[in-house]
Amino acid sequence: MEEKNSPNDPQEKISKFFSTFIQNIQLAVQASFKYTTDSVGATIAFFFAAFNAVTTTTGAGIILPLKIGYLIGGLISVAYFIVLSSTKIKAQHPLRRLLLILIFAPFSAYTSFYSIYSEMSEGRLQEQGFKEIVKSHNHLVTEINGYLTEIKSRTNNSVGGIITEIDKIKKEKEDIEKKRSEEPNRHIKGYYAGEVTKKDKQIDRLENDPAYKIYIQTEQIKKDYANQLSLLSAKQLHEAKESGEKIFQQDQDLYAKIKNSISGLNLEKFTDKNFENLGLEEHLNEDNYVLVPIFLVPLNSISSGSKEAKFIWISLIVAIGMEVIPILLSGIHVAEDESKSENNIETDENSKP
Predict the structure, then answer these.
(1) Which positions ≥6 away from 197 have C-beta within 8 Å?
(2) Which residues contact 31 (CB under 8 A, 6 or more apart)?
(3) How far apart are CA 19 and CA 9, in angstroms?
(4) What is the distance between the alpha carbons of residues 27 and 21, in angstroms, rounded to a whole number?
(5) What is the Cα–Cα distance from 130 to 127, expressed in whole angstroms?
(6) d(CA 346, CA 342)
């Protein structure tokens, strides 16, 4: 016959102790989780849900046009808040509640992300769509300015003495004209008139120097197109609400006018570059002047490896975290409530005659 373990067997006592201890821990965890999700969690979830409602509304207003985003974001925030907080929906429609959460949560997280990222980037989110346009314009301007500066620098070495001489002759001419104006018979041509004519010829001869003509022409170009040859920032374009198409047309016009202005100048001695070989005509591609839609800005920033990428990841983590926390605290698993509902239905059916 097999021997049965005595009730006082130490090994059995230890086994029962650990078994009871583990069961008690499990019951405590389950009770704590239920209490937290049903009461404390619901209270805490309220504040997270309220925060999400604000960020969802403002984020929708950022990414959707014509300010309709605020209305859509607000309506979805209210509906989502009711789905999360209503104990009746949780108890009577658990499956529908779960499906609504799966629909509303991604939208809420997506729009909240834009709201949080906009704050972290100090409101520069809307400006970042202009980056490619700014980059294309500033490249064109930098190349043209560099080309003109090189010419001016080289001609300056040749015309420094000419400019000084011209200024000197002009001063002498002014002195002669002043003396001539003091003469009683100044309307009659004489010595002073001849001296003025002589000075004019000297000035004309100096101004016809090839290097001087190129120097003056490049100076005039930079003066005439000073505004178009200035660098732009994304903030300027955003505040002015400029379109990429308009900037493209302006840059095309600028390139054509400067190309025409220098076409008749003999520049071989003053630059190693040919204006037409700078590659600017190929760079003037309309595809380089496209405004990036705001909902694609983060993806574009990450793919380009810009410094804003770290803010994007932080904002995304915060948005998802603030979305998941209230869902967990409000409780998704409603098996107990569901079983109670089913039992109530069965009781009602059995009570019918």
Answers:
(1) none
(2) none
(3) 16
(4) 10
(5) 6
(6) 6
> What does the alpha-carbon distance between residue 306 and residue 298 come to, in Å, rounded to a whole number?
10
Question: Which residue in 344, 348, 329, 349 sits closest to 50, CA to CA?
Answer: 329
Dump pLDDT digits (tens) for 316-346. Answer: 898 888 888 887 776 654 444 444 444 444 4
Tell me which amino acid residue 216 is.
I
pLDDT in tens, 114-134: 888 888 877 778 788 888 899
* Six token digits for residue 61: 């207003």
Rounded to the nearest 10 degrees, what angle do helices 244-262 and 131-182 cross at? 40
- The token pair at 213 is 């003509």
Question: CA–CA distance from 97 to each of 38, 81, 84, 123, 283 (Å)?
Answer: 16, 11, 8, 35, 54
Q: Specify the pLDDT at position 331.
A: 61
- Judged against a pLDDT cut of 80, whether residue 170 lies above it is answered with yes
20-39 tens-digit pLDDT: 878 777 766 665 555 555 55
81-99 pLDDT, tens digit each: 888 777 777 778 888 888 8
Report the chain's C-alpha Rg in angstroms.
40
- Cα within 13 Å of Cα(210), Cβ side: 8
* Angle formed at CA 178 by CA 174 and CA 180, multiple of 5 degrees: 115
Show the tokens assigned to 257. 């006018």
CA distances from 163 to 9, 208, 233 (A): 116, 12, 37
232-236: average pLDDT:
87
- Cβ atoms of 291 and 298 within 8 Å: the answer is no
On whether the CB atoms of residues 313 and 117 are closer than 8 A, the answer is no
